Amino acid sequence: MSRNNKKDEVIMNENITAREVRCMGDDGTNYGIIPTRDAQQTADDLGLDLVLIAPDGKPPVAKIMDYGKFRYQQEKKKKEAKKKQKVIVVKEVKFSVKIAENDINYKVKHAIEFLEKGYHVKCRVFLKGREMAHPEAGGAVLERVWPMIEEYGVREAAPKQEGRFVNMYVFPKNETKK
């Protein structure tokens, strides 16, 4: 993360160039529109920082606050949000048009394991050479696979062709109940 980002850059204390600011206190006190040096003096008297919140305003809006504490709380909120974030893992199971029944069973067994662990599964059939002329053959393979994993997952949509692949997305059943 670079320090030169305009969004991350905070204008505070002596770096405020506006002649007057609309000033607010950390406790909700509204000081109104006052000269910047008076606002800075008030912040210094309270032992706090004068931080420009809305530099584009007419006049700019500044707030008297403990900037170090404010930044600490912002970082804390970001960390909390990140903890609650759920990472979706997509596992891929590949089939071919000319696949034998025992191979389908073997790959379906893996797809079921993934669904039971709560992963999303992308079933895909790769179309080689002349198979591109008949993509419905790939859809037929996935339609044969679907009844085998139906009780473990929910299908997003019918198999659809995307380039050289025919894809079908399956989500775990227990996730949809939440």
TL;DR?
The protein has 178 residues and is an alpha+beta fold.
Task: Write structural notes for this entry.
This protein is α+β, with helices and mostly antiparallel strands and 178 residues long. It has two domains: 13-80, Roll (Ubiquitin-like (UB roll)); 90-177, Translation initiation factor 3 (IF-3), C-terminal domain (Translation Initiation Factor IF3), CATH 3.30.110.10. The protein is built from five helices and nine strands; from the N terminus they run ββαββαβαβαβββα. It has helices spanning 36-46, 67-84, 101-116, 136-149, 173-177, and strands spanning 20-25, 30-35, 49-54, 61-65, 90-96, 120-126, 153-155, 160-162, 165-172. The strands form two sheets. Strands 5, 6, 7, 8 and 9 form a five-stranded mixed β-sheet that branches. A hairpin with a 2-residue loop joins strand 8 and strand 9 (165-172). The model is unreliable at 1-5 (pLDDT under 50).
